[in-house]
Amino acid sequence: MSLPEPLRRRLGSFSRTVFTDSRPTGPQYPGDRADNEIVSSLPLQMSLYFNVYFFPFWWLITVIMLYLKYPVLSDYYKFILVTIMILASLIEVIRLYLGYMGNLQEKVPELAGFWLLSLLLQLPIILFVLFNESLKIQPLERAVHIIFALFLTFQVIAAFVTLKRMVNKLATHFRLVEFDQLDEYPGPDFYNLAKEERAVSRAGRGASAVWASHTESLRS
């Protein structure tokens, strides 16, 4: 299972625009190849691994706290909390899947989707339920929200750094492929072409002079 191709293209274009380093990229040593470099982030993968086991615990605590304080909440906040729980659960499953795929297999569109979901959706949702006192947050609930927010903050930073490395690796690989193609199929020798053009032009001028002298001799 992978992302739809139009979405992959848009995420790839977004990644090249945002995460490409303006400085020239290339192998550190002449003999190095960009293909041999591993750019997957071990700290990010460890964070995702622990996040997978923490999320069911967070979901269970949040649901229990919601059940206990549901009668004392206003109708407005009841609707908000139920909606947040549904959205956060769906987003988290998709987010963790994209994070695993993007980091382990070094897929830029998947990791970019993980980064966007973490930064623009999941982190604002957790911060909202953490700092909104009208939701009557309980101490245990606040504790699990703080841990979740720390997970998300670290993953946003680690994914950003990893995406920059992946995009720069792809740019370096593209340049190396271009150089290999130039070595395998060299272009024309422009110096020899210039010499041939000059020789042709001189021959053309010589033929014109001979034709002009022959025409004058016929007239005379």
Structural class: mainly alpha
Q: Tally the helices: what do you get?
A: 6
Tell me the fraction of residues in β-strands, as a range. under 5%
Major sheet attributes: none
In round numbers, the mean pLDDT is 79
The helix/strand order is HHHHHH
Distance between the termini: 90 Å
Q: Assign a percent range to the helix content.
A: over 70%
What labels would you give this structure?
0% strand, 6 helices, mainly alpha, elongated, 220 residues
Structural summary, described in words:
The chain has helices spanning 5-19, 42-69, 75-104, 108-131, 139-184, 190-219. The protein is elongated and about 110 Å long. Helix 1 packs across helix 4 (108-131). With 220 residues, it is mostly helical.
Fold topology:
Layout (H helix, E strand, L loop, with lengths): L4 H15 L22 H28 L5 H30 L3 H24 L7 H46 L5 H30 L1
Task: Briefly summarize what is shown.
The protein is mainly α. 79% of the residues lie in helices and 0% in strands.
